[in-house]
Amino acid sequence: MARMQLFLLQFLAIVLAETFFLLSRFASSGDIMTVNRSLIHNQTLISAGGVFQLGFFNPINDSTNAYIGIWYYNLPPRESKVVVWVANRNKSVDTSMTSLNLTSDGNLILFEEGTRVWSTGTSAELNSARLQLLDSGNLVLTAGNSNRILWQSFDHGCDTLLPGMKMGFDFRTNTPWQLVSWMNATDPSPGKYILRLETYNVPDFFMLNANGSVKFDRIGPWNGQWFVGLPMLGDSIAVYVNFTYVSNQNEIYYINEYQTRSPGLLRLVVDENGKSQILVFGGGQWNSLLSNADYDCDYYNSCGRNSVCSRGYLSISCRCLEGFENKSDGCARKEPLHCSSNQFSKELKVKVPDTENATSRGKISLNACKKSCLDAVINGPYGCITWRGDLLDLRSFTDGGDDLYIRLPESSTTSNWKRLVWAIVISAFLGIILLCSVGVLVRRRRNRASTRRLQLQFPNVEKGSISTLDVLPSYDLHTIKGATNDFSEENKLGEGGFGVVYKGQLDDGQKIAVKKLSRYSSRGPNEFLNELSVIAKLQHRNLVRLLGYCIEGDERLMILEYMENKSLDAFIYDKAKSSLLNWQRRFDIIIGIARGLLYLHQD
């Protein structure tokens, strides 16, 4: 009897051990779940390559209230899951009374005490469905016999965009592929911000409030290479993913997919404050590759209508488009616009305006594009686009962006032109003296205002250095870009460690040389202003004269006197031209150099 009891106890122990082993295996049951199976607390699916895990999680480490979600598997820090998708966002569940079930009729349901909390709402032939977690992070429910996709998590994004997910709109189901932020770091319920594609005539990406009525940020349309509002995105993300744009009668979307040899995991996240970031995993941590709303210019229409926002060292600057003047809510046209006008001003390297009132006119020439009776046009990689009415959310870039053509009103009709000519002829002589006087006063006031602004921006620069700039003209970047043909290669005169020198010509015909400091130069704004101050004091016939300067956005420019005969070495080392330098002329050159050096060192 005792032996029989001992045998039964040993047998029971073996059965319990085997049961425990099977349960422990079921706690991590591979990447597939079949019909009539379920997941409960501490049971998960792990993708075949060990990239993602599906199961119950709790954002605040509470043992009862939890959500079904997908997170990166086995990435540091292991104590905090990086969750990329949540099923039951609107309602947490008690894990002690909850299970995720794949029913025999092909419906994935989350039950709590027998009550349905969430489901895919799908159906399939009896016992034919299969659920699988892929290495892409996509949870896919298929009809097992045909592998037909019944439902997938990639069509129901939360706050995270993974490579392979679509961002756009499905016209067949009238539903968007969009991202919605969490309410906060510990509450995955739908938050206050939505990132989605608005299906205007020219589709455009926006960060919106929860009901879509307020625009906070705009990424801009896709131009075939990058999003217009994020020109820096192209090169930085190209090593990780390839972008694809699809537009047809059924759907319109953008999708990025990993390169064949991508150097790391990548995701885009919309956080609880409406900030979107592209994060890449490397060096044991997530690093920010790009983020929006880092500067005031990133906020939607921060300068108002018909104005351009530029980012400076410490703050933004706003200016009206040509032909517009300041109003309380931005800028308005100085004169009414008529279709008979064929005059345009060119805005270089800008984020194109909000496309809500834009129209795409296909691949036509720029001249044909300009013939449309509209306020602004662009003819870029995406073809001809025209705008009617106010132009909103314009921003200038140092690199990237597109060229926008703003229609200007005709200066006058024929009769008005004759009257204007007579008025100019009669009043020119009388007004010239007054204009000169006013010009001097305005220049002085402008320079004083510029000095005060520079003192506020650069408090570490000596006051004497800034005050020296009172007599030095300050040019705006738009003028210098026009003078140098947007710093074209044809206008380049030379290049060194400090940057590049370009030839230019101002609107009054004066030729200039523009010294464009490299953004990688070790000289900061303070050193640049001190250098300007020193050069401004130098007035000698044997030294190149400083005409002015420009500090705007990332640009630091010196406007110098242009030397028609170029550099001296162009004559000395050129076999043909060196013959022009006889010994007397060479001696005169040496004396001139010596006089310049004497002035620099002694005076």
Summarize the structure.
With 603 residues, this protein is α+β, with helices and mostly antiparallel strands. Helix content is 21%, strand content 35%.
Description of the molecule:
With 603 residues, the chain is of the alpha+beta class. Among the domains are: 1-25; 31-156, Agglutinin, subunit A, CATH 2.90.10; 298-411, no CATH class; 470-569, Phosphorylase Kinase, domain 1, CATH 3.30.200; 570-602, no CATH class. Helices cover 21% and strands 35% of the residues. It is built from nine helices and 40 strands. An eight-stranded mixed beta sheet has the order 27-26-34-30-35-32-33-31. Strands 3, 4, 5, 6 and 7 form a five-stranded antiparallel beta sheet that branches. A five-stranded antiparallel beta sheet has the order 36-37-38-40-39, with helices on both faces. A hairpin with a 2-residue loop joins strand 9 (108-112) and strand 10. The longest helix has 44 residues, at 414-457. It is elongated, with a radius of gyration of 34 Å. The N and C termini lie far apart (120 Å). 29% of the residues are buried.
CATH architecture of the domain at 31-156: Orthogonal Prism
CATH superfamily of the domain at 31-156: Bulb-type lectin domain
- Percent in helix: 10-25%
Strand order, sheet with most strands:
27-26-34-30-35-32-33-31
Determine the number of helices (DSSP H or I, runs of at least 4 residues): 9
Distance between the termini: 120 Å
Number of strands: 40
Features of this protein?
603 residues; alpha+beta; Agglutinin, subunit A; eight-stranded mixed beta sheet; five-stranded antiparallel beta sheet; 9 helices; 35% strand; elongated
